[in-house]
Write a structure and sequence with these properties.
Layout (H helix, E strand, L loop, with lengths): L5 E6 L5 H12 L2 E3 L1 H11 L3 H7 L21 H19 L3 E4 L3 H4 L6 E7 L2 H12 L6 H20 L11 E4 H4 L1 H14 L2
Parallel strand pairs: 1-3, 1-4, 2-3, 4-5
Length: 198
């Protein structure tokens, strides 16, 4: 089995995907990229972070085919952001021997480019609601709407640009329930899988 170079992490909102990604990176001694990619994309495209946050996970393409990152005469703002993030991800992976990338359709962008371990982090609704209240301070009567809002945004973004199903087991190499396993065990499972690929 070829060595896994990049761990990509997709995640439902309030499942600890970002935290797990950072833990994995720390255990492996590599860099973790998450919101940093958004900042770099904003600079590359030349728009404000406010606009990036507004558009980055909006539905970019209503057709059921992935956007063409190259050769389009006129790209919408969301398409420009995605294209910029894709270029940044490819550049990172050309310069670093290994890394962890959270979100940004990295599993699709890197397909057939480098050996990846594509992980999806999920958890029960009750566990996510608990996390939303305790860690993010979301009011109880707003939790359901906010969980649905962020999941729907991520799902539309992923599905529109990859022709794969966000959260579907066939779209990933590994799906982990952080509510049952805990963040530390999720990270350990991922790290062990990477190490065994050497």
């Amino acid at each position: 089995m070829a060595k896994i170079r990049v761990v990509t992490i997709g995640r439902r909102f309030c499942t600890g995907g970002s935290e797990i990604g950072k833990m994995v990176a720390e255990k492996l001694g590599v860099n973790c990229y998450d919101r940093e990619l958004v900042e770099q994309a904003a600079e590359k495209v030349g728009i404000s972070m406010t606009d990036v946050v507004k558009y980055e996970e909006s539905l970019m393409n209503r057709l059921k085919t992935p956007i063409n990152l190259f050769g389009q005469a006129e790209l919408t703002i969301p398409e420009k952001i995605f294209a910029a993030e894709a270029e940044i991800i490819m550049d990172i992976c050309s310069k670093e021997s290994s890394c962890v990338i959270v979100g940004r359709c990295a599993d699709y962008i890197l397909k057939n480019k480098v050996k990846t371990l594509n992980v999806f982090i999920t958890a029960s609704h009750d566990k996510r609601a608990q996390t939303a209240a305790e860690k993010h301070g979301i009011e109880y009567d707003q939790i359901d709407d906010i969980l649905k809002k962020y999941d729907n945004k991520r799902s539309r973004f992923y599905n529109a640009n990859t022709n794969k199903e966000w959260g579907g087991i066939d779209s990933y190499d590994m799906c982990l329930d952080s509510g049952k396993l805990g963040y530390e065990m999720c990270a350990d499972i991922i790290v062990k899988t990477v190490e065994m690929s050497k």
